[in-house]
């Protein structure tokens, strides 16, 4: 438990420190982009990814959605507007939660969308209190994926859908692959992702059945090099955040071919049994 508490504080510290700067690079949708003919840069690609996730979310007006790892809150606000649902977004970062609630107030959506600082390992919600859930690039930050998935299973009603957008391990990593992936994971306080069968196994053990699996690697992976170039243009700022040597290693890993060959990006839709 002490180790899990330390990891939680480490993730909180990272996003308290970096969210504002990363938002300037990504735009309001702080996650990988969906690159197609309609996008021109990382912010528009990230916004397109949110649109794609909303399209894949099976909800009806009035239902209640949990957004696990809400970031800036913009994806949750967009989901609530587009699908006429209520959303509760959670994050370990106090600054992200405050920023997201400010956005909800400014957009006059605080009645339908609220954000709270919550530990995903112990969700403070009653059983079967949500109709659906999102986990957009948040599972990789969890100290124990299995525990978090069991918590999500508990708070979702039977038949409720969980949408996970995250990385997956394409192949057993070589030494060079491992070094690149571990450098990125260390910088962003993440663990190496499972394989696709590993994702399915974890979901099954938590009481979910995978009903759809969409490999978005081709659309998402351009985000890696795009982010690296944007961060490189602001080297002094990000060196202060990550440390000079750590940031240099991070850039080298993000710009190398090993990372994209090792880690893919998947959208999983799972149903609570």
UniProtKB/TrEMBL annotation:
Which GO molecular function annotation, any one, does this entry have? methyltransferase activity
Q: Tell me the keywords, alphabetical order.
A: Methyltransferase, Transferase
Entry-linked SUPFAM superfamilies: S-adenosyl-L-methionine-dependent methyltransferases
Pfam families from the UniProt entry: Methyltransf_11 (PF08241)
Q: Which residues form a coiled coil?
A: none
**Domain Methyltransferase type: from-to ranges:** 66-164
Highest taxon listed in the record's lineage: Bacteria
| Protein name per Swiss-Prot or TrEMBL | Methyltransferase domain-containing protein
